[in-house]
Design goal:
Layout lengths: L1 E5 L5 E4 L3 E5 L6 H4 L5 E7 H14 L4 E7 L9 H9 L6 E6 L1 H14 L3 E5 L11 E6 L2 E6 L5 E5 H4 L4 H12 L1 H15 L5 H16 L1 H5 L3 H21 L8 H16 L6 H21 L11 H12 L3 H11 L7 H6 L1 H9 L4 H9 L5 H19 L9 H9 L5
Helix pairs in contact: 3-4, 6-10, 6-12, 7-16, 8-10, 11-12, 12-17, 13-14
Length: 416
């Protein structure tokens, strides 16, 4: 367990994960980790099982194993249907072992938490930062929702498996780390504007993980095992920082909201979207451009708002069946009722200083290009109109304050 001490921020940071192994042959560690458990449920999809399922089964051959393997030829959505399928497979299960990455991890985390049993994740790709976080990114009632769901007992990451993951998933993990530039900047902004909790230690550690990842970008692109190990370590450390903070705030801001927009709209309207981390990386270019536009312009003297009827019509057009949930969320939070213009003008110097700390969009494009994430693909898939709509309305999916709210408050929809 990663037990800390009381930080200068006033919180006592800790992370109750018993084992973290990132190494060649890490799956063999399951023999010792799982020795106290007999009835174990393995959860995977066909692709992740092909990557590490046989190794995991052989290592746990002394236990009573049951498994559920989702189809590999379709996108697995962590919703009520998937939850029910995992629950139906549980018969006196003492431990869940997930074999996979993002969705498998979230699904196992969620089910294990509410079943009050431990779970272990056997990582098959360095694709996201949720391995060590206590939030499960679920889609419930059509909404993307991060549910507090505890931590894994162990994270087992075999570098031989990780380096052979699909390149798009490796790129996703790298893009997720690049997105921390935006998330950290949003955190500072909300600390200034809303007096939100902020921890310099968590901020600095997360920033160090960005720099560490960038330093091995070339090796990541070449699937070099040590570079993949470093990327995986960075993703796990960032997850631990989220646990320290008690929320995903250090790692998730406006860039994640844009990513969630493309995912939710894609699911609702059956439109294509990139894997989460890839979208996060590309969206970081967009949020950098927003900050640059704000820096280039005078701060507004009037709050931007559209009429309630027009707002409801736009939300229904954009989010379809999910629109009522989004609008209800925003009514509860009350962001649309707040007029922060005088506060923005009062703190203009500090806001500009915070935005100046963010690397510019050209730098982000170059960093993404190091692992062959070409920004042109982003614009080709989504188009200018959809991206502009995301800039204006991705904020409505979440209760978190970011640059998307400041931009909308002061300048309205893109192009207006």
């Amino acid at each position: 367990m990663l037990k800390g001490k009381t930080c200068d921020c006033g919180k006592h940071h800790s992370c109750d994960i018993e084992y973290v192994y990132i190494e060649d042959g890490a799956i063999q560690r399951l023999t010792e980790i799982c020795k106290a458990y007999n009835r174990i449920l393995l959860v995977a999809d066909e692709n992740t099982f092909a990557a590490a399922g046989d190794k995991t089964e052989r290592t746990l051959s002394g236990q009573k194993l049951k498994k559920i393997v989702f189809p590999g030829n379709e996108i697995l959505i962590p919703n009520e249907n998937a939850i029910e399928k995992v629950r139906d497979a549980m018969e006196e299960t003492e431990l869940i072992v997930g074999i996979g990455s993002g969705v498998i991890q979230d699904l196992c985390k969620y089910v294990a938490f509410f079943a009050k049993i431990p779970y272990i994740i056997v990582a098959t790709a360095p694709s996201m930062d949720g391995y060590a976080s206590d939030g499960a990114a679920m889609i419930l009632n059509g909404m993307k929702e991060t549910v507090k769901a505890g931590l894994p007992m162990a994270i087992v990451a075999d570098t031989k498996v990780l380096k052979d993951a699909p390149m798009e998933m490796i790129q996703g993990g790298y893009g997720d780390i690049i997105g921390k530039y935006s998330a950290l900047n949003d955190w500072k902004l909300s600390h200034l504007v809303n007096d939100e909790y902020f921890c310099q230690h968590i901020y600095d550690t997360t920033y160090q993980m960005i720099e560490l990842t960038i330093s091995v970008a070339e090796g990541i692109a070449k699937r070099e095992e040590e570079s993949i190990r470093i990327l995986t370590e960075a993703l796990i450390v960032v997850g631990i920082m989220m646990s320290f903070a008690g929320s995903s705030r250090p790692a998730s801001g406006s860039e994640h909201h844009l990513s969630h927009f493309f995912e939710i709209v894609g699911i609702v309207k059956n439109e294509p979207y990139f894997p989460h981390g890839v979208d996060v990386g590309y969206a970081t270019v967009v949020t950098a451009l927003l900050r640059e536009k704000i820096l280039e312009n005078s701060f507004a003297e009037q709050l931007y708002r559209i009429g309630e009827n027009e707002y409801q019509d736009k939300m229904r057009e954009i989010y379809d069946v999910v629109a009522p949930e989004c609008m209800a969320l925003q009514r509860r939070i009350g962001n649309y009722a707040k007029n922060r213009i005088s506060l923005y003008r009062e703190k203009e110097t500090e806001i500009r200083s915070i935005f100046s700390e963010m690397p510019n969009h050209e730098t982000i494009i170059k960093l993404l290009g190091a692992v062959d994430l070409k920004i042109e693909r982003f614009y080709e898939l989504y188009g200018e109109e959809k991206i502009n709509t995301a800039i204006s309305y991705a904020k409505d999916l979440k209760d978190r304050y970011t640059v998307l709210w400041l931009y909308y408050d002061m300048f309205g929809e893109m192009g207006k």
